[in-house]
Give the backbone structure.
Amino acid sequence: MHLTRVARWSVRAACLAAVMLVSACNDSTTPKPPEPGQPPQPKTSMVPSLVTSAMAADAPAAASATAAATTPATTPAAPSELIARGKYLTRAADCAACHTSADGAPFAGGVPLKSPFGTFYGTNITPDKTNGIGGWTAEEFYRALHDGVAPDKALYPAMPYTSYRQMTRADSDAIYAYLMSVKPAAVPNRKHDLSFPYNVRMAMRAWDWMFLKDTLPDAAKGQSADWLRGRYLANALGHCAECHTPRGTFGQLDKAKPLGGAALARIAAPDLTPEALAARGWTVKDLQTFFGTGIAPQGSAFGEMYPVVHLSTQYLTPDDLRSLSTYLLGDAPPAPKPLPESPDTSKLMAGRNMYLAVCAGCHAADGTGKPHVAVSMLGNSTVRQKDPRNLIVTILDGVEAQKFPGLEAMQDMPGFDKRLTDAQISELTNYLRVAYGGQAGDVNSEIVKQLRQK
């Protein structure tokens, strides 16, 4: 599913160069009108920028001279209720994931996001007037979220304004009020490391004209109050589509496949359509538990999803968690698919022996896992994915120790990239998929080799 991209990006570069020429010739075109903890650093992947528009930030440098001149010397303090609401919405919008580095001040930026276009860096969105957004007005902040335009430049869609465009002005103003209340951090922004022609910002005018839309398509159907609220949480605030929807030639969201899953470098953001979720055993109740705690019968949040739970969804109210889960599966969710009762593993004895030797100590001989130690392999959502890449990469790289809300935690899982050969990992992967996931045992050594080398 994740093929070599050199030829593909060469074509894209040529196409984008043509777009830039159009933009340059038409330079007057205007684009269409929680307090966080330190985010854990995912161990399994590096997320591409435009695929992770959902989590990146191309935030602002200093405010323009004009904006500074029109900003009052003393800004009236926002009401405490507005700031509290803004804090909740900032968490729901997962701003910390890209604007707070592991060793940095809250919202001071610096998070790297690697992509086929180069490396983007989340920027400083504290009230610091030199490096952050302290010189911005609420109107300018809203325009950045809605139109992808900062006071001094166009933003790259690594900042997910393609989703935030659906955010209400009231919610934008509340987030602005909260960010203006946090401690300013005099941390300079890192310049994006982008190759030509992607480092020419004027091309974004043409990109926005072609691809920036007011709404996103839905993968599920519904009209209930929960479904409608969930749509707003998923599409506007949570910007789920930015990672879980495939991308087109120019890095735009493929509107024909909403939430249909997308490759994120070595891993894949899973398919979140109702049919795909049901095929992996998900229910509304289990999704609600997963978003709220990071753990469900289908497994625990890891990789890129761990910071989403850690910094964002665990803080949602029970009502919002229910709404988000309802939106993903729809008002009439499909029944979860059961696993085969007696899977035939007779031809997978090498994989079974490997599982018993290196996995059963933590995940149990029957695959049911151990509480507070390791998740169950039986019915595990990653094991049940049609695309085996996430399972293979997890076996190769391992998973860091995880702490979840309350007292729940999972211990560190070591990676086996140095201990097992490509053939052994393919045998182990096939056994897991057939025995515990109801999938085909069709992984070969070449697939493992390609993922190992990425």
In short: The CA atoms of residues 327 and 367 lie 31 Å apart. The two ends are 14 Å apart (CA to CA). The beta strands are 112-115, 118-121, 193-194, 262-264, 267-269, 295-296, 299-300, 402-403, 409-410. Residues 215-338 form a domain with the Cytochrome Bc1 Complex; Chain D, domain 2 fold (CATH 1.10.760).
